[in-house]
Amino acid sequence: MSSSSFAALLAAIAGVAGAVQIAVQARLGDRIGSIEALACASAIGGVVAVAVLVAGTRSLDGLARGAGAPPWMLLGGALSVVIILAITVAGPRIGIVATTSVLIAAQFTVGALINRFGWFGVERVPLSPHRLVGLALLAIGAALTLRR
Predict the structure, then answer these.
(1) Average pLDDT over residues 128-145
(2) Are 92 and 26 in contact (CB under 8 A)?
(3) Rounded distance between C-alpha atoms, residue 23 and residue 17, angstroms
(4) pTM score over 0.90
(5) How would you class 100 by CB atoms within 10 Å of its CB: exposed for 0-12, middle for 13-18, buried for 19 or more?
(6) What are phi and psi of 34, to 5 degrees?
(7) Around Cβ 20, how many Cβ atoms within 10 Å?
(8) Taking burial as the number of CB atoms within 10 A of a residue's CB, which of 82, 108, 130, 147 is the most buried?
(9) What pLDDT does residue 1 have?
(10) What is the mean pLDDT of residues 46-63?
């Protein structure tokens, strides 16, 4: 399997995991509270991530190297808290499809801006008219999922 095929497969698996995560986090949040569910999920995620690190590298050195990275590079961990809290709160209130749709539309829009301006050192990708139409359609689709 080529590295790009593997990456696409992993992204698809993450998409499935994301939808399931919204559903189970919503239920956990209803059961124990949103902030408690956030803490629980984050703690479990941290334990699993460290276990994968140790299994894959037989070392914890990656944690020390990560801690030494520029602070902006560590935003991923902090932002995952925002994502987990948002899906925990939004899932039971607006539904799984609407939560996923709004999250994806926002992700695509900000992703397009990150690409367009080359923020965080990524390769610049122009915002073509086709891309703008696609983003608009995503936003419309997300808005439509909010209607019951």
Answers:
(1) 96
(2) yes
(3) 10
(4) no
(5) buried
(6) -65, -45
(7) 11
(8) 108
(9) 87
(10) 96
